[in-house]
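User: two proteins, same treatment. go.

Assistant:
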Amino acid sequence: MNKKAEQLFKQDKKQEAIKLLVADLNKDAHQLPEILQLSTYLVQAGDLEQAEELIARSLEIFKDNQDLLYNLGNIYYLADKYDKANKIFKNLADDNYAFEAYFMLAKTLDQQGKRQLAIMYALTAVEKAPKDLAANELLADLLLANGNFQEALGFYKTANKIKPEAKNYFNMALCAMNLKEDYQIYLKESKRLDEQYYLKHEKKLADLQEFIKQGENHGGK
C-alpha cells in the first residue's frame, strides 16, 4: 500500500491520492496492493467506471485473484449490476474466501428480491464473524423485513452489545410491538442515543401501531 496516497486520501485530497497511485502503477503495473488501493479510492470517489476498468485490466495480469474479484463484485453491486455481483460473490463464497463474500452475497440477493436465500447467507456471515456489527445488523434487518420478529430481536440485541445504535433499538421496538411485548424501553434508548433519528422515524412507529390496532379490531369482529 502506498502510505503517501493513504495520507492524502485521509486528508480528503482524493484526486491527488488517485493521481499518485496512477503514476506509480504506470511505472510498474504489477503492484497488487496499489491496484486494490486505487480501486477502493476510485469507488469512494464515485468513479465506478474507472474502478471497473482498472480491475478488468488487472485481472489479465493477476488472473482469478480473489481480492480483485471481491472488489469487482462490490463495484457491480454499487452499480446495480446485481446479476454480475451475485456470480462473483457466489463463487467466492463457494471457495470460502472470507465472511465478507457471504455478507455481500446476502446483500445482493436481497436486492434481487431473494430474501430467503439472503437470510441464509447472512446467517453464514454471522456464524463466520459473530462479532461483526454489519453482519449482525444485516441479518436482523432481513429477518425483520421477513416477519421473523423474535429472531430479528435477538440479532439486534447482539449488534447492540457490539455497538449500541439508535436504529437498532428502534427496530427492536418494532419487533417487540409486533410480538405484543413491551417496547417502550427500546424507544427510550433509541431516542437517548440519537433523537434526530428517532423523530425522523417516529411516523413509521405510529403507522405500525395503527396497523396492529386495525388488525386487532378486525379480529375481534
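Protein 2:
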Amino acid sequence: MDAEDAWTYIRQFRDGSKVAPVHRRRMALAVRLGIIEGYPDRTLRPGRSLTRAEAAAVIYRSCLFLVEAGPNPFSPDGDGVEDVTVFSLGSLRNRNARGWDLAVLDGSGRRLKTLRPEDAPPEPPEAVVWDGTDDQGRILPAGVYYYRGWLVDRNGLEHRSVLKPVFLEEKSVRGFVHPAFVLPGETLHLSAFATGRPASVTVDFSPPVAGEVVLTRTGRGALWTADLVVPGGARPGVHRATFTARYPGTTRRAQAVFEVGAFTVTAALEPNPVPAGGEVLITAWPSLPAAECRATVNLPDGRLAVPLSRRSAPNAAETWQAGVTVPRDTPAGRYGVIVSATRTGSTARATLWLEVTEREEDLVFILVD
C-alpha cells in the first residue's frame, strides 16, 4: 500500500489528517482489514490511548476468526501442481457459531467468489478449497485477490477475519530470437518472458547450433535474456529455439524460429584467357555486405595477393574489383585464383581458374609462298 492508497482510507475520518504521516500506512491497513473501525462520530482520535475494552475489541476482531490460504501463490492451470489453494479456518469453538461465510474479493472489495455452500452447517469447516474460479465458474486472470471470512456468534454478533491477499499466478513462457536472420560469427539475442517465478529458463536448438543456453533473469521481473555468438560451423537453414521454463514439479515451453544464413561470394575474371604481361580484372559479388574482399593468384613464382576495392555503395548486391597484371615471364598454363570475402567473423571463398597464354611477341609466324 503506497501513501496515496493509505490516505484514501484515512481521509474518510474527520480527524484523519491528525494521524502522523509515519503511521498512516499502518493505520490505513488496520482500517482496511476491519481491525480498526473508528468511533461513532467518524473519528480515529489518534492522539488518545486505547482503553482496555477498546484494546480487547481490536484483539478480538483480529483473532476470533482466522483464515489462512496455502499454497499462496497458486496457479490453477491444470498441470496438477498447485492447481488449488486451501483456506484453513480456525475459530473459537465455544462461541456456538450460528453461521459463517468466506469470500474472495477483488481490490475494490467486490465479491468474486462465495466459498460457503448454501447447505453448509453453522459451524465453519476446518478447510475450504478454491480452484481459482469466480461464481460463474470462470478461471480468474492472474493477479492479486483478497479473502475474508465472517462468523456470526450465538449472540448474533458478526466477526470478520483479517483481509489477506491471495496470489493467483499463471505459469507461462514466451520466447523471442533476434535477429530472425543471422550469419555464423554474428550474435543471436535470446529473450523470454516467464511468469510464475520459474527456477530457471533455458534454450535448446534444433538442428543444433550450440549446447543448452542458460538465460539470466533481468532484475526481479519476468524477463530472462542471453546472447549467443553463432558458431562458424552452424548449419545454414531454419532452426528452432525451444525455451523451457522450469518450475517446482512442472515445466512450460515455447518455441521461436530463426534462420542461419550462408555467406557466399561469386567472382569472375575478365579477360580469361589472358596473355602473359596482360591485365586481368577480378570482380567479386558477396551475397551480403562484406568488410573486406581479397584475391590470391597462385603463380609458379609464388602467390600474388590482391586487395579488392568496393565499387558500389554497401548493400546486398555490392561489387568489389581490382585489376592485376600477369607477370611477363609467367609460363602459359592454368592458375588458381581464390577470392575471399569477410564479414563479422564469417569468410566466404570462391575458386577460379585463370588461363595464361603466351605473349603475342613470342609467337612465331611462318609465311609460306
